[in-house]
Amino acid sequence: MGQVVVITGVADGMGKEAARLLAAAGDSIVGFDIDQAGIAALQIELDEISGASGQSHYLVALNITDRPGILRFRDEVLARYARVDTVLSNVGIGFFSPFEEADLEAAQKCLEINVIGTAAIFQAFIPAMRRQGAGKLIAMSSLVGQVPFPFESIYAASKFAVEGMVMSMRYELAPFGIRVALIQPAQVSTTFAAKIHQLPPQGSPYRERAARFIARDDQLIKSAPTPLQAGRKIAAIVHQERPAYYQQLDFMSSFFLLLNRFLPLWLRDAILLNHMDIK
């Protein structure tokens, strides 16, 4: 019997590819995204994948900041399926800016979506998982959740917060049979970074280094895992009965996290600055 898998941010990128693969494996996909057209198209596609198997999928257009809407979604899902096996918090936005020049109103939006959005979807489904005595909560973090990069201070703060929150939850939920895991990609070959890469204005003391950072990041993205490759690994993690707490999707994230664990700070800094061409 397949799992009932909740996925946020399901209409595009890694979330969409993971949903396709999980549906093909016999899981029921329930989820939401702010992209109404993307949700409608994916609903048709998932129904076609499942064919006459009787397996059903339920997708809605919903903003992660709509907390009453999330609770209504939760109630609809439980009424339809009676249980939820895995919740994958995949929704998130990026933020790129020298910290000195960061728009703090925009920063607040980033933290609201990335941190409180993750909290809201997990909190909504924990009571049902606790009653059934089992479940998995998987949060999409990032390499920068442990290894912060320059010009990504706000985004890094959001992912550090997600990692701290999930680690604390792990202790609280383990007695009820609920397992938690973090996925920590470095980069995936999507338009995620391109949407946020904006040069500081002319005259900014950070402009030249930020330009080198963006150029290097764009170069690295070309060889990064595709959404389909990332989706395969995410689907495999969802299917693990006891997923490891830390999960990476690519060599770069595993490599940098290993360096972060064992090397002295000065050497870690030197490697990072050289890697991103911003010495």
Give a quick set of tags describing it.
single chain, alpha/beta, Rossmann fold, 7 strands, 12% strand, globular
Summarize the structure.
The protein is of the alpha/beta class.
List the helices and strands and how they pair.
Layout: E1 4-8, H1 13-24, E2 28-33, H2 36-50, E3 58-61, H3 67-81, E4 86-89, H4 104-132, E5 135-140, H5 153-173, E6 178-183, H6 192-196, H7 207-222, H8 227-239, E7 246-247, H9 251-262, H10 265-275
Parallel strand pairs: 1-2, 1-4, 2-3, 4-5, 5-6, 6-7
Protein model, in words:
The chain has 279 residues and is an alpha/beta fold. The chain has one domain: 3-Layer(aba) Sandwich (Rossmann fold). It contains ten helices and seven strands. It has helices spanning 13-24, 36-50, 67-81, 104-132, 153-173, 192-196, 207-222, 227-239, 251-262, 265-275, and strands at residues 4-8, 28-33, 58-61, 86-89, 135-140, 178-183, 246-247. It has a seven-stranded parallel beta sheet with strand order 3-2-1-4-5-6-7, sandwiched between helices. Helix 1 (13-24) links the parallel strand 1 and strand 2 (28-33). It is globular. The mean pLDDT is 91.
